Structure prediction request, 252 residues.
Amino acid sequence: MSVVQSFSDKSFSEKLLSALDHIEYRRIEGHEDFEDVARLRYKAYKAQNVLPVGASHLLDEIDFVPHAYVFGIYYYEELISTVRVHHVTSEHRTCQSVGVFPDAVNELLDSGLTFIDPARFAVDPDIVGELPTIPYITLRPSIMAAIHFDTDRVLQHIRPPHAAFYKRIFLADTLVPPTIAPIYGFELTLLASRVREVRPQLMRRFPLFQSEAYERRLMFGEQPTMLSPPLTVLPTARFASRPNSPEMAFLR
Prediction:
């Protein structure tokens, strides 16, 4: 890596951390929060002209399976983006990617691999210009989940024009080349990042993706009852990136 590129990465990483200072993550559990997420999904997908065929309301049955984790990302306490992650194993195969690419995903599951499958990625189109770092912030839970559950891969079923981003940032490999997805009516491709292999480089380049173990437990552990207030989680990336943190010890 050149000195110029190194300084550029450092500058951008600081911008990411600075934006993260004003972010809260919320595990979506209650009816009202799910309705907010559904409205945001619809608004974002309509703006990008990528609504699923026949979509009128964007809550899915698979939002509510036990191995699904739906998150709202709040900026100055306003919902600005959302993502859902599934912890996918041979026993729990339900996820967005297996619905789109069943042969490829099931073959890997049959071989014993486990995955995190992020889906329903949606960003408020009104905030993108103000906060261009929001895609990284929104995808952060998928990396945290891979570490928490110690999975082999993070899957990315995406539109082909977005593949370069995932290959550059997450060092993703192509599993399935661009293919028409009937549920959407346009092409998708399937990529996957080898979590354990890419983690050291990813964390060094983008400390935003680092996290303390207790943050991951709050995000993916057992949640309070439905009568409890929604659990809001503050990011720990700045703490995890300190020289004496367990995360940094892992990277050395």
